[in-house]
Prior knowledge:
Chains A, B: Pfam families: HxlR. By secondary structure, chain A is mainly α.
Amino acid sequence: MSQRNTDVSVQLDMPVDCDGEAVAPFTPGQAKACTVREVLDRVGGKWSIGVLVAASHGPVRFTELERQIEGISRRMLTLTLRNLERDGLLVRRVHPTVPPKVEYTATPIALELYEYLVGLTNWAERHRGAISAARIAYDREHGPV
Amino acid sequence: MSQRNTDVSVQLDMPVDCDGEAVAPFTPGQAKACTVREVLDRVGGKWSIGVLVAASHGPVRFTELERQIEGISRRMLTLTLRNLERDGLLVRRVHPTVPPKVEYTATPIALELYEYLVGLTNWAERHRGAISAARIAYDREHGPV
DNA sequence: CTGTATCCGTACCGATACTG
DNA sequence: CAGTATCGGTACGGATACAG
């Protein structure tokens, strides 16, 4: 991952420049792992996927998102939107009307990402039961405490 | 996501039972988002992917992992291994020899997951430049502070 | 309607020391 | 070799109040 203690993870609260290119030798496998981490560090926030999915079906307004994504706070919605916009995954368009109207749209890059997320979704749906069972079995054998 | 404040995220430090089935009505899109979150909550930890990748190439020993995954601490390696084993993504085999020898192997489910991670890896590699550029552009327009 | 600002809990993770 | 135990920092995210 990051070989120095310069952490390359997302800073959701405060933006930070993040260009930790791999300099040290990686095993091919761990290079892959490192790249996946890059994605997750950008899109792995608690709400990013939800916002992305909602914005992938056409332009969405702020309040629409707030209603569609159950449980999100106004603060986190704003932060998530800013981060996704910053990474070029969302386009923010302001209509200078009163009351103000702001629309968010997923970029082609984000739409492409959405495709791959479907793969993960299907994986989770297929194995949800098995994983749940594995947990129960594990907790019974070892102490649930 | 989780409609109550019962959070379904991973507890990495302390195991916790996590079966928050979706009961409330979801929009189809947000249902997808919710399922992806399930995956990330299991596998989105800082080191999970790295461990998974390393274990997908055959049985690996504890110390091997410690060396391959640059920067991981002994504590985090143990915790990550325990979580993955609990979810049925890793099998732990103990050889009762002296000195002790423990081997971790990815299960078929984990191998399948690995396939899908490749999709994300390729996505990141394709768009790494564009995202980086988008960040720079964004930070120049809005304040980098 | 679309945000900002502030306070604060807690999960995640690192460092370090100890053990069968 | 393969862990466990404990302490502490800090980023993430929730609640709430305020604003253009």
